[in-house]
Amino acid sequence: MSLATIDLVILAIYAVAIFALAQWVSRDKGGEKKDSTDYFLASRSLPWWAIGASLIAANISAEQIIGMSGSGYVIGLAIASYEWMAALTLLIVGKFFLPIFLRNEIVTMPQFLQQRYGPSIRNVMAVFWLVLYVFVNITSILWLGSLAITAVTGVDQTAALIGLAVFGLAYQLWGGLKAVALTDAVQVVLLVAGGLIIAWITLGQIGGGDVLAGGTRLMTEFPEKFDMILSRDSPHYASLPGLSVLIGGMWIMNLSYWGFNQYIIQRALAAKSLDEAQKGVAFAAYLKLLMPLIVVLPGLAALVLAPDLDRPDAAYPTMMALLPVGLKGLVFAALVAAIIATLGSLVNSISTIFTLDLYAKVRKNMPQTHLVLVGRLAAVAAMVIGGMVAQPLLGNFDQAFQFIQDFTGFFTPAIVVIFILGLFWSRASEAGALTAAIGGVALSGVMWWLDREGIFTLPFMNRVGLVFLVALAAAVIVSLMSPPKAGTMQIKLDGVSYRTSMAFNIAGAGVIAFLIAVYALWW
Q1: Dist. CA 97–CA 259, nearest whole Å
Q2: pLDDT tens figures, 430-447
Q3: Residue 39: left (phi > 0), alpha (psi -120 to 50), or beta?
Q4: Lesser CB count within 10 Å: N end or C end of the chain?
């Protein structure tokens, strides 16, 4: 596949426009210099539409678009559970987690852990998240994003990787979170438009010009690809183990990702008010309901339009190749926008955690402008390191997904235990939290090794659920044996209300009704 001159012009216009917009929306006004609140939390002034759009832009990147299209080609619509169940998770985060976070003016997730448990767990988790974001998230996005660009354009992958790193860093380096969040609204419009264009054109080709006929043909010719809950005899049961999608380990992964993940939750923490934050996550929930059309449908369409693919992950680039000149450039710009938006969110969160949770604790009482400078230097260092280690860590596409899944799966159950108990059980102690953290990682490692050696096999999602239950029990027992010390609980719960607006409640009912409908239709 190659891009025509007009496609390249469209891509260039996107790059220049998004860079210029980022600098304009985050400019210093009236000669004032940015302080840490401006840079890391967008002055706590984000409106709901920016929060919702930025949540999705931070989430959707090359691994979702390319990888989930490939999974749609192999597994079918069932892979959309990751998107649709996330919509309900966002509503839970908005109703039960954000009231506590915003009441206590939380800036980072490690800060919450210190105020709830003590300094030790804050330092441990701050270092953990920095390692995760640099050596897993940034590396995977740069590597898989450059692979996608190479597959579409034929550009040398190293050049593509460097280009993504430089642009992803440069467009948000000066403005911080405000540059990221306010431009994400444009990025998401481009992402959704590009995805819907592919959906419309591919379904039209399948249906002989009739989009609805194209969808009907897919469901008629490949009914097995429209089973949302896979049975045990499915060859893909290990990836999506039946009811665990609805009542098991997927909840643990979703709560960790959407509720306690700094580079996701940071834009909600920057809201101008709790009501605005809740409207933002409700908006994001509806965008998540739309996402399978963008990230799964191209893979399903490839079942008819490209039935003999060498690799499932070639489904999305192959469907892009079917687009006419001009539209191809627009959709490619949408793919690049998804990668750039996620990179920008990641490096901003890395700079936030490094500066506020580690550096500012060692170098106390430093000027605000100095902290902003340190944040920018941390962002540069993170991107340089991520780019340098991407190829050694993620040598091929298949290992990249396994690497991400295995590494994050070691920590996800313990993270959820620590935060859920910290939010809703006053007896939880630092000793119990550290027990959950250490024990959860150790048990995950043992079960991973047993599975790898064929001694005891368990689907990944079920392993996450089991480790969560064991870590939860261990944390409760240790907390009862070693209760929290006086004065360690600094989280304020007075004034916290879980009542939500009528608009939020109606939005929640709509999400639930949609989920009931799609799972009933394609059970």
Answers
A1: 7
A2: 999 999 989 998 999 899
A3: alpha
A4: C
